[in-house]
Amino acid sequence: MLLITKIIIAIVALLHFYFLWLEMFAWTTKARKVFLNFPQDLFEPTKSMAANQGLYNGFLAAGLVWSLLIQDMQWQIYTALFFLSCVAIAGIYGAISVSKKIFTIQALPALIAIILLLATLYSS
């Protein structure tokens, strides 16, 4: 079960590296095709704001990758739980304030990983 959990954590990290790239480097190009409900005329004026959001996503991804590299199992789980909780909370807030689709893309994978990590923590 721990291997499956680590794979899900890696997927969540990869998603956030993708969000980093999209928001920091492709906001006025590729993001226009991803965020179809966002007004097209606002991409250029919000470029620096999106880059800031991308940077935060990068920190979340880096924390998740770091959690996979920690040797001590207990600290690995605690670190992963912290960063996954940040992702889940951000995803839930985004689903409430922006689009319900954010819950499925961002919060749900993090919540699944949290449940699996807690099961691992309390079964040992």
TrEMBL record:
It holds the Pfam family DUF1304. Keywords: Membrane, Transmembrane, Transmembrane helix. The keyword Protein transport does not apply. InterPro entries: DUF1304. Coiled coil: none annotated. The chain crosses the membrane at residues 7-29, 49-70, 77-96, 102-122. It comes from the Bacteria. The keyword Membrane applies. This is DUF1304 domain-containing protein. The lineage of its organism: Bacteria, Pseudomonadati, Bacteroidota, Flavobacteriia, Flavobacteriales.
